[in-house]
Amino acid sequence: MTLEPRSESELQQRQRAGDLRVCSGTAFRARVAAEGLASAYAATDVVVAANAEFTDQASLLLQLGPTDPPIRIRQAQLDGVSAQGGSGSCGISLPIGGGLVEPLRQGGAQVLGRLLAGAEVVLALTGEATALHPCRELKTRLKLERIGAGQLLLNRAISENGVVAFSSAEGIIHSPCGPLLGPYGGALYSGGGSRSIGLTMPRLAFLGPGSPVLVGGALGWVVGAGSGHQPQTRRLPSGHARAPGAVAAVSVELRELRPEWIRPCFFEGHGSGLLVAIAAPIPLISAAVARQACLGDDQLEAPVLDFSIPRRLKPSFGYVAYSQLLSGVIQVDGRQLPCFPAHSPRLASGMADLLIDQLRSGRFPLRLPLEPLPQRSGLIPLDP
User: Fold this and answer.
1) Same domain membership, residue 290 and residue 205
2) Is 174 a domain residue?
3) Alpha helix positions (H), the chain
């Protein structure tokens, strides 16, 4: 059977008519296994994949209302967490990560969590005095409804693949994935395997500037390549990345975020971060796209890295299949290691279901990117 390609307009017309056939990546792979690729492709228009991973590479961008007398913000603190003056005289940028300084032990992630929960935060501003902005200091309390405009910018929102982290050193090593007990006490893996966006959509091919994604329950937009973007990474013959690979940065309106889909967290020895649920549609416009979307966890793999070395390049112990990670035990350097997810499969699955419902009802826009993410690597070392 010849698998005819589909156009963007054809899929959009199906969506407007209420006939768009959407399913999760898990359901699509089960359909392929039961009926074959041709039959599954003929019965499916869009596959949905989702991630719910930790990130500390993000900022909360806030535009505050005018003050009397006016202030040109240069420094700010929200509940004691430092921020910087941003765009405009009343804009501030609050980093999501950090917060290791005692006794605070919180970062922008915790401030964001309190705002989304409806709580007040203490806002302290320091300004640069000018003829038009004579105010030097201001202290007040701030709630979500008193913020004129706000966006959460996730600099590393979606990456193609994750890593498997372990430690060969004695004691506990702190990592972005969580604490690692060594030597060889266990491993944490950050990627979701075949259920993830990047391993259902190699090269993040359907994400580019202006592409819609569902972020924390809200409509977000890809703004371009993200932090650590490395599209020229090593790949399997199928085109799937064997390392984190391509990365997309995403922006989402603060007021639209739903707290049940975005969780502040704190990693001992590393700082605060966010667990963010994100889902994206993969339009099955050709047989090649469908073939890539149906690979299982036994055909996909992640790199195993020793995080006991605090350097940019960490010792690699090869690759391990996601089917092994999901089994709960992997073998590293001849040793059996228990392994655990450093992400939330439950939140990812829930976000995928939410996007499926919005696509079927026409509440989520379905479109191909105007241009893809750049092929130039953004992972350029900064040497002294």
Assistant:
1) yes
2) yes
3) 8-17, 25-35, 37-42, 108-116, 287-293, 322-327, 345-361
